[in-house]
Design brief:
Blueprint: H1 2-12, H2 24-39, H3 45-59, H4 63-70, H5 75-89, H6 91-103, H7 109-124, H8 149-170, H9 177-194, E1 201-212, H10 226-237, E2 245-247, H11 261-273, E3 277-286, E4 291-300, E5 318-320, H12 334-337, E6 361-363, E7 366-372, H13 379-384, E8 392-397, H14 407-422, E9 426-430, E10 436-438, E11 444-447, E12 454-464, H15 468-472, H16 475-495
Parallel strand pairs: 1-2, 2-3, 7-8, 8-9
Antiparallel strand pairs: 1-12, 3-4, 4-5, 6-7, 9-10, 10-11
Helix pairs in contact: 1-2, 1-3, 2-8, 3-5, 3-6, 4-5, 6-7, 7-8, 7-16, 8-9, 8-14, 8-16
Pfam families: CN_hydrolase, LNT_N
Domain CN hydrolase: 211-462
Keywords: Acyltransferase, Cell membrane, Lipoprotein, Membrane, Transferase, Transmembrane, Transmembrane helix
Length: 496
């Protein structure tokens, strides 16, 4: 029964994240798992692993949609691949549980567990290129704790969640009810109070428009559909030329850049004629070096005072994706894996990396820090490209891989987190949803429904200044959790 409860508690975490967003579930789910950690024999690795298996098995089940629909694997193989991924990700909470139970008595778990959890989540964010999806702090984007996000970031709020949840599991066993009530009151009331303060100041307002083409994934790289796709985006853009900035999603232009130059040149001229700029995703390929890049390029005016368009083939007002998605954009051990199944030989799965830090895109005088698709889940990379004159964060994506699952809603939730952490508005343009405007406080101001072709226009207020998290990064939470762990170690030695 304890093992079953811990598995179910992990699975219940799905309801804490978007699209359900029932943030109190996080505290209950983790508290149940920690309480079962007390009851299960051994050092806790199996308990933590089962918790992770439920957490990721239910939470990222959308990965199976892409494997099953586009991977070309039989059902048993696609389920097996999904199970293998979840089993791997479950190792991290398993180790956090193991180290906590192995080295500390239960009464000190609320002090020790945040350190181990934070350490293992940090490893998960970079190991095997990193997969920091569904970190617990994301579930708190709408809770009273969200006031702490500009100060300690999602990482810090995750550590705070672990402290609060483990306290609820452990302190009642020692009749520490006053301490438990005090901890929760301080955490939530201080989060609410900090949220009343604006760390950045409002600056300028721009009219921005985004286009959602809703192109089926099965047709995106079919040559016969290149022209209809580009014409569709042009038609949807026609009423938007009076905006200060127009955005198309990831790889919206389905031709390689050098083959689409006449089309891009025409768009460049149209944008200048209407006194604006357009940013689109496109794939570029260098025939001499055989390198390909997943790019964002600026068409039209670079600066508001320009009289001519900025675009030319291979111009430097572009961004090349750095953090590539395993299997989808690069294949490790490709000589071995590519022949095995279509999953390992998808179109556009051999990209080269752009630099970790790149100059901002400049479009009609607006400075944008880009993040393509998966990159928005990596706050350190986003922070590396945020400068004092950065006006907005731009993220583009194609979530058509994941169908009618909750993956796109979780992706949008991650974008909201970056806006709240860094105090910058986020523009999210996608192929089939969810295209949305997010203000600097992480609130969605307008959005398009999924699986519909359309356009969206909204005023966007830029900001100046930096949040504490932009200055400190994760150093603050590392120091705080380390201090708590040292206090726990001192109390343990004093008791012994």
């Amino acid at each position: 029964m304890p093992y079953l409860l811990v598995l179910l508690s992990g699975a219940s975490l799905t309801f804490a994240f978007a699209p359900f967003s029932a943030w109190p579930v996080t505290f209950l789910a983790v508290a149940v798992a920690v309480r079962q950690l007390l009851r299960t024999p051994g050092k806790g690795f199996l308990c933590g692993w089962l918790f992770g298996l439920g957490w990721f098995g239910a939470g990222i089940s959308w990965v199976h949609v892409s494997i099953a629909d586009f991977g070309g694997l039989p059902l048993i193989a696609s389920v097996g691949a999904m199970a293998l991924l979840c089993a791997y990700l479950s190792i991290y909470p398993a180790l956090a549980f193991y180290f906590t139970k192995r080295f500390f008595p239960s009464r000190l778990w609320p002090l020790a567990m945040p350190f181990f959890w934070m350490l293992l989540e940090w490893v998960r964010s970079w190991m095997l290129s990193g997969f920091p999806w569904l970190s617990l702090g994301y579930s708190q984007i709408d809770s009273p704790l969200n006031g702490w996000l500009p100060v300690i970031g999602e990482t810090g709020v995750t550590a705070l969640v672990i402290l609060l949840a483990s306290a609820v599991a452990v302190l009642p066993l020692f009749q520490r009810w006053p301490a438990l009530v005090a901890i929760y009151f301080i955490a939530f009331s201080s989060g609410w109070a900090v949220n009343q303060y604006n760390w950045v100041v409002r600056d300028k307002q721009y009219q921005v428009a985004m286009v959602q083409g809703n192109i089926q994934q099965s047709l995106r790289w079919v040559p016969e559909h290149d022209e209809p796709t580009m014409q569709k985006y042009q038609n949807l853009t026609a009423p938007l030329w009076d905006a200060d900035l127009i955005l198309w999603p990831e790889a919206a232009v389905p031709k390689l850049e050098n083959l689409a130059t006449p089309f891009l040149t025409d768009l460049n001229e149209q944008a200048v004629e209407h006194n604006t700029a357009l940013i689109t995703g496109i794939v570029n390929f260098n025939w001499e070096s055989s390198e390909a890049w997943n790019n964002l390029i600026v068409l039209g005016k670079k600066h508001r005072s320009d009289e001519f368009g900025d675009y030319s083939y291979f111009h430097n007002n572009r961004y090349s994706k750095h953090h590539l998605l395993p299997i989808g954009e690069f294949v490790p051990f490709e000589d071995l894996l590519r022949p095995l199944a279509p999953l390992f030989d998808l179109p556009m799965s051999s990209f080269s990396r752009g630099g970790y830090q790149q100059t901002n895109l400049i479009a009609n005088g607006i400075y944008l820090a880009p993040a393509i698709c998966f990159e928005i889940a990596f706050p350190h990379q986003v922070a590396a490209n945020l400068h004092e004159n950065t006006d907005m964060i731009l993220t583009v994506s194609n979530d058509a891989w994941f169908g009618h699952s909750h993956g796109p809603a979780q992706h949008l939730e991650i974008a909201r987190m970056r806006a709240k952490e860094f105090g910058r508005p986020v523009l999210r343009a996608t192929n089939n949803g969810i295209t949305a405007f997010i203000d600097f406080r992480g609130n969605i101001t307008s959005r398009l429904p999924q699986f519909e072709a359309g356009s969206l226009r909204s005023p966007v207020i830029t900001t100046r200044g930096f949040t504490p998290y932009r200055y400190w990064g994760d150093y603050a939470v590392v120091m705080l959790t380390s201090m708590l762990a040292l206090i726990a170690l001192y109390l343990k030695r004093r008791a012994s």
